[in-house]
TrEMBL record:
GO terms for cellular component: proteasome complex. One of its GO terms (biological process) is proteasome assembly. Keywords: Proteasome. It comes from Arabidopsis thaliana x Arabidopsis arenosa. This is Proteasome assembly chaperone 3. It comes from the Eukaryota.
Length: 124
């Protein structure tokens, strides 16, 4: 299920799907200076990460991902934020990402489904 709300001051899209028996809801918001993505299977925000492209002179882009709140010992969550910021920055290089992952299932399959669904429904 998908909905796009143009009345709210911030462009956003809501998507939900079933992943391994867990209802997964995603909200994607495009603010002027950030992208906010909330993915939840628990009905609340979870671990919150911040990801951005580092500005520099190198040919290869560098990305910074940090955990703001929540589980710091989950490398798959950090990898998910990195995959998303790599995609976002290839289109809008100056917009950082704030990502909230409130998941029951932290498997790589679920996280890949979330990344694919976000990219498919992107607002950037």
């Amino acid at each position: 299920m998908e909905s796009l709300d143009t009345n709210f001051p911030v462009r956003h899209r809501k998507v939900s799907f079933e992943s391994k028996g867990n209802k997964t809801e995603i909200v994607i918001c495009s603010y002027e200076d950030h992208i906010l993505i909330i993915a939840t299977q628990i009905g609340a925000m979870g671990t919150i990460l911040h990801a951005r492209k580092e500005e520099g002179m190198s040919v290869e882009p560098t990305f910074s991902v940090s955990v703001i709140f929540g589980k710091r010992d989950e490398p798959m969550l950090t990898a998910t934020a990195r995959r998303l910021i790599e995609h976002i920055s290839s289109i809008v290089p100056s917009k950082p990402l704030v990502l909230s992952l409130g998941l029951k299932d932290h498997s790589s399959e679920t996280l890949k489904e979330i990344v694919a669904t976000v990219i498919e429904n992107r607002l950037w």
